[in-house]
Write a structure and sequence with these properties.
Rossmann fold, two-stranded antiparallel sheet, 9 strands, 2 domains, Helicase, Ruva Protein, domain 3, globular, five-stranded parallel beta sheet, alpha/beta, 15% strand
Length: 303
């Protein structure tokens, strides 16, 4: 697994220079069956990373450009009367793909954002009284601009909690930026990426993630992090059980990518900021980094 994950990371790093850690976190989240939120200011490569991820996964892919006038039916689909069929015929929306890129998701109204809630949690959608399963596997890779920017709507807490991870790319270092300036267009390079896995290979890797062991002592440490998050001053509500389960899955995936069959506290600490940050922000910009750092500092690995 280590060599294979390194190959995936190298392929993505060839497109998005100088972002090794963010790329590894993104792959980790997808191996852990989680949805991914990429947040940063415009022009930092969010959509490029999402597009490249979809290319190397070798799965069916649809991109939804969210706007403030978009309706839920534009995402989920709708039924129209068909004279030849003699009745209503359902036309599936772009949500019916294995990888869905929700580009600039926070430009859509809360009503349209909520159309993704059931899809992300249940891997199905309920439309016009009928439940329709989504393709398997099913991943949402969403990008968003900071909520301080004009024309954006903050994602509700219920929506944020359905994203396993949130990552930010940040500015490139000088060497990477010079290579970007001197090199080829990154989107054109991304278009040439070939699939490096398929659905069967991905399912096998996810089963390997499930088989990575976590000792009782490791679970104790993870549980102490969850408990302490619920007792922090100024935090309305701490990390949910869903967040705890996601943290364990992501730590297992991180361990597997490192070539291990057991989880270490280092694995938990490596993925914890990207899993806890958006859940602990709670409307206070910049507070999440302080809270995450405080938890990792104050909660001991051993009691």
């Amino acid at each position: 697994m280590t060599a294979f994950s390194d190959d995936l990371v190298d392929a993505l790093n060839g497109i998005l220079l100088g972002k090794d850690r963010q790329v590894r976190l993104a792959l980790c989240g997808l191996l852990a069956r989680g949805h991914l939120l990429i947040e940063d200011i415009p022009g930092m490569g969010k959509t490029t990373l999402a597009h490249a991820l979809a290319r190397i996964l070798g799965l069916s892919y649809r991109r939804i450009q969210f706007t403030n006038d978009m309706l839920p039916a534009d995402v989920l689909g709708y039924s129209l009367f068909d004279r030849q069929a003699g009745g209503l015929v359902f036309h599936p929306g772009p949500i019916f793909a294995q990888v869905v890129l929700a580009d600039e998701i926070n430009r859509a109204s809360p009503r349209t954002q909520s159309a993704l809630l059931e899809a992300m949690e249940e891997r199905q959608v309920s439309i016009e009284g009928e439940t329709r399963p989504l393709p398997r596997p099913f991943f949402v890779i969403a990008t968003q601009n900071p909520v301080e920017q004009g024309g954006t709507f903050p994602l509700p807490e219920s929506q944020l909690d359905r994203f396993l991870m949130r990552i930010s790319l940040g500015y490139p270092d000088p060497a990477a930026e010079r290579a970007l300036l001197e090199g080829e267009d990154r989107r054109a390079m991304s278009d040439r990426l070939g699939p490096m896995m398929d659905a069967d290979r991905l399912a096998a890797l996810q089963e390997q993630v499930d088989a990575v062991t976590a000792s009782p002592a490791l679970l104790d440490y993870l549980q102490r992090l969850l408990t302490q998050s619920r007792q922090m001053p100024g935090v309305l509500y701490g990390l949910s059980p869903r967040a705890g389960l996601g943290l364990l899955r992501a730590a297992r995936a991180w361990a597997l990518m490192a070539g291990r069959q057991h989880v270490l506290p280092d694995d938990v600490q490596a993925v914890f900021p990207s899993i806890a940050g958006h859940r602990l922000e709670q409307g206070e910009s910049g507070k999440s980094e302080v809270r995450v750092r405080e938890l990792l500092t104050r909660v001991p690995v051993l009691p």
